[in-house]
Design a protein that fits this description.
The protein is mainly alpha-helical and 189 residues long. The protein is built from 5 helices and 2 strands; from the N terminus they run αββαααα. Strands 1-2 form a two-stranded antiparallel ribbon. A hairpin with a 2-residue loop joins β1 and β2. α1 runs parallel beside α3 and α2 runs antiparallel to α3. Bound molecules: flavin-adenine dinucleotide.
Length: 189
């Protein structure tokens, strides 16, 4: 659908033997593999959330430029209050996502939160950029649906952010389970 700048291919692992030296986490039997994988995923989530903020800002810029120059009834569409509402919501989503990413990155770096904040940042920023992309296409009208417009590609690119590095539902599960503790797994507290 999108993100054609990043190639995707199937990888088949068939009758592969992996030497102990290549074990994720390093130490067999100590159980560091899962923790290492989770730490890498949490780091990746902050990274993906930041990507979402960058794309959201570009979408806002494209939207504002278009609303300033596109005219209907002899006046720029940016003068219509309903178009202003779409722009205001996208600016607000972008500001909120940026603040959350910065907070999550701070918490990751100082080690105070490597579970909830990365998941929340990835969850919010990826959902937000989806909304921003949708509004960008809307403000562009029919032109926004055509291959020639930048926002058409961004709309397709943005869709994957809610799916990779853990879907939005998986982020919800991580966030809720972390705050609920044992009760979140259905076990006795
Ligand atoms: C082009 C492309 C590139 C990708 N690159 C990466 C990458 O670099 N890194 C990466 O991590 N991923 C990447 N992914 C995503 C990854 O390949 C999976 O698609 C993703 O992890 C979701 O798994 P799945 O497709 O098997 O969906 P499924 O796990 O089958 O999920 C299907 C639906 O069920 C929901 N679901 C599944 N389990 C639960 C649960 N326990 N609770 C609630 N809901 C649940 C999901 O949210 C989703 O809505 C990429 C995907 C694509 C298409």
């Amino acid at each position: 659908m999108g993100q054609f700048g990043a190639w995707t291919a199937d990888v088949n692992l068939d009758a592969i033997r992996v030497p102990a030296a290549a074990l994720v986490g390093g130490d067999a039997g100590v159980g560091r593999g899962h923790a290492t994988a989770m730490r890498c995923l949490a780091h990746g989530r902050v990274h993906i959330a930041a990507l979402c903020v960058g794309l959201a800002q570009r979408l806002v810029d494209e939207t504002v430029d278009y609303a300033r120059t596109r005219k209907q009834g002899g006046r720029p569409i940016g003068g219509f209050q309903l178009v202003q509402g779409l722009i205001a919501d996208s600016v607000t989503d972008t500001l909120a996502a940026r603040s959350l990413v910065l907070e999550a990155a701070r918490a990751y770096d100082d080690g105070s939160d490597r579970r909830v904040a990365p998941a929340a940042a990835k969850y919010f920023a990826s959902e937000a950029v989806g909304r921003v992309a949708d509004r960008a296409v809307q403000v562009h009208g029919g032109a926004g649906y055509m291959r020639e417009s930048a926002v058409e590609r961004f709309y397709r690119d943005a869709r994957l952010f809610r799916i990779y590095e853990g879907t939005s539902q998986i982020q919800q599960v991580i966030i809720a389970r972390e705050v609920l503790g044992p009760a979140g797994t259905g076990k006795q507290a």
